[in-house]
Amino acid sequence: MYKQVIEKLLNGNNMLPGETEMIFDEIFNNSINDVQVSSFLTALASKGEVYQEILGAAHSLNKFKIPVKCSSLQLSDSCGTGGDKSSTFNISTAVSFVIAANGFTVAKHGNRSVTSSSGSADVLVSLGINLTNLTPAKAEQALNNIGISFLFAPYFHPAMKYVANIRKNLSFRTIFNIIGPLVNPAGPVKYHALGVFSPKLAPVMAKVLQQMGVENGAVFSSYDGLDEISVFDQTKIIFFNNESTEEIIFDPKKYGIYHESKELEKIKVNNPDESAELIKKILTNSAPSVARDIVTINAAIFEKLREPEISFEEAIRKTSELISTYKPLEKLNQLIGFSQKDEVTNWVF
Q1: Could you tell me whether strands 245-250 and 235-240 are parallel, antiparallel, or unpaired per DSSP bridges?
Q2: Of the candidates 268, 270, 281, 342, which lies 20 to 30 Å from 64 by C-alpha distance?
Q3: CATH code assigned to 2-64
Q4: β-strands 235-240, 191-195 pairing
Q5: With 50 as the cut, is the pLDDT of residue 189 above it?
């Protein structure tokens, strides 16, 4: 299988879904060596991943995950693919606390940094969360007890250990940057907001999420290169549900949250501690307006997913008011407390 697939990729041809799933099954079963895996990932990235390959890879990884059970009707995830090389703080992680305070049950799925200054796991540790204590069982308890949890990818995707060192040694993003956000252990979630590093990838990811069972989602990529809804430039947003998709162009100038591109420097960080400090400032209403605004719009998208008829103006207003109440900060503190408690079976709030 490996030799045929490599030859196909080197000739610029796409794999079929079944072929993709089979080759990734071999990777996750540790049936092919590191050199072969590196060559495969390089050839695939060079050719460019397409819909059927992304779907096949995600289906394969889902076979090997440790599942999380949650009965919430508002199960959600806010994430990005990474790979935009912007060095911004962990926006989607900050968003997760805001939407948790808004009644969504947030299964935040993530990992340590591979291509960025700070991965979601890194910044949560800097915020005071005991990652070691959020084992699959306790992470599931947190999700069901307090409405937000962090699902640390290595705990839930043990098969990824076979590619961990390879990913670190490769100097470019791979298909794993793309499929990571697609394989939430609690998934498929009902509400999913996903930022991608390229506007061309947005419709592909929307289609994949649809196929994987997400009921209401938004995939977006800004024209300034962020894998977020930007406050510096227009953003392509693709809304989808079980039956249809709709593409819009979001312009921050229309909604009073536009910032000059030079202000991007105010939300760049060099490490997880700097990211954590900025998130704290946002949740305590002491951050620069550009940082608060970019979290506000990326959290407001969940208002649009839950109530499609609500205007962007109203979604932004409601979200901004929610941040001012300190309720998102309470959610952060609850998760910190939960993660630091050794025995959480009878945890009550």
Answers
A1: antiparallel
A2: 342
A3: 1.20.970.10
A4: unpaired
A5: yes
Q: Are 227 and 221 in contact (CB under 8 A)?
A: yes
Q: Cα torsion at 120, 98, 89, 241 (round to 10°)?
A: 70
Pairing of strands 75-80, 105-110: parallel
* Two structure tokens written together for 211: 């196929």
Please name the residues in contact with 40: beta carbons below 8 A apart, sequence gap of 6 or more.
2, 5, 6, 9, 23, 27, 32
- Output the six-digit token pair for 178: 């793309």
Distance in angstroms (rounded) separating the CA atoms of residues 175 and 192:
19
Overall pTM > 0.70 = yes
> In the numeric block, which tokens belong to residue 96?
């997760």
CATH 3.40.1030.10 fits 75-153+185-336, yes or no: yes
User: Are residues 294 and 231 in contact, defined by beta-carbon separation less than 8 angstroms?
Assistant: yes
Domain ranges of the chain: 2-64, 75-153+185-336
CA nearest to 87, candidates 289, 293, 266 = 266
- Sign (positive or negative) of CA dihedral 46, 50, 53, 54: positive
Confidence of residue 117 (pLDDT cuts 50, 70, 90): low
Q: Give the whole-angstrom CA distance, residue 99 versus residue 236.
A: 21
